[in-house]
Specification:
Shape: globular
Structural class: mainly alpha
Oligomer: single chain
Largest sheet: none
Order of helices and strands: HHHHHHHHHHHHH
Number of strands: 0
Helix content: 55-70%
Distance between the termini: 45 Å
Length: 299
């Protein structure tokens, strides 16, 4: 009895509890702060912050290519160099067959997607940590910082698509008439990439070791994703699980079928990739909003 009373006194700051009065374990439910996320309100805030997203993306683009002799050419030099290496190693040495499509086009389509994802992932992961001074001074939806990095990666991807068009001319071929399938695939690609960027951006703030994992993830991911080889190289019984964990596999395969082979993407794999990307997007956003309130305290 004495131990129980001593505990009550401590919890109430030294004031003894009246006899027969139960002490609540916490504040009343109506006083507990509950954050509700309303999709329409979230969309409205992001739309209202569109000028900030544009300004952040423009700032990052200027900082990246300022005083660079080759300028925006760097956006395609990396995928072109990797494409040349993949052609020598996987096509010439390992004998990866791509059917009627030239292997160079086959690999470059995958590299455009991977370059977009890896740029967004690496820059998006550091987007909050690199803008802490701005975060603590100006109110804005904090998810705009990873979004701005994805916009920068989109500009790089657009340049890469322009080079892809030139490569079609070099190989005397043209995109297949089924290229319109690229539109839903692009939405899946954006949803998955933004979800990953949201998760990593807030994770880096709380656990700085994550930033050191990013180069490892990038280096391993380009080989774990069917960039240099077709999705068919993964055992058939594991393909659905693989696409569920890495929707980029189905996205890249779908782009190749739509652009190079004149076929519609595999419906089942595309649906699995779409569902998985939606889970990553919604889960990543909820994870981000759950932890964003403590960013200023941790930083």
């Amino acid at each position: 009895m004495g131990g129980q009373r001593a505990q009550v006194i401590d919890e109430r700051g030294g004031r003894p509890a009246p006899p027969g009065v139960a002490i609540p374990a916490g504040p009343p439910p109506e006083l507990v702060f509950k954050r509700r996320l309303r999709p329409l309100q979230v969309a409205h805030e992001l739309w209202a912050a569109r000028e900030l997203v544009r300004a952040l993306a423009e700032r990052d683009l200027r900082a990246r290519y300022k005083q660079a002799v080759l300028g925006f050419a760097w956006a395609v030099l990396t995928p072109l160099a990797l494409c040349a290496i993949f052609t020598l190693v996987f096509h010439r040495a390992v004998k990866i067959e791509t059917g009627a499509a030239p292997y160079t086009l086959f690999a470059y389509v995958g590299l455009i997607v991977w370059q977009f994802f890896s740029n967004t992932m690496n820059q998006g992961a550091l987007s909050l940590a690199n803008n802490l001074s701005l975060l603590n001074k100006v109110y804005c939806p904090r998810e705009v910082f990873p979004l701005a990095t994805m916009l920068v990666a989109t500009v790089d991807m657009a340049i890469g698509i322009g080079v892809l068009g030139l490569m079609f001319l070099v190989f005397w071929t043209a995109p297949a008439a089924t290229f319109l399938w690229a539109v839903p695939l692009l939405l899946i690609q954006f949803a998955f990439t933004y979800g990953i960027a949201l998760i990593l951006s807030v994770a880096v703030v709380y656990l700085r070791d994550v930033r050191h994992l990013l180069p490892i993830i990038t280096q391993m991911g380009v080989f774990a994703t069917p960039v240099a080889y077709p999705l068919a190289k993964i055992p058939h019984r594991l393909q659905e699980i693989y696409v569920g964990l890495n929707p980029l596999g189905a996205v890249i395969e779908g782009y190749r079928k739509a652009l190079l082979y004149g076929e519609a993407p595999d419906g089942r794999m595309t649906l699995i990739a779409a569902a998985s990307s939606l889970v990553f997007l919604v889960g990543g956003y909820l994870f981000f909003k759950k932890l964003e309130t403590g960013i200023a305290d941790v930083a």
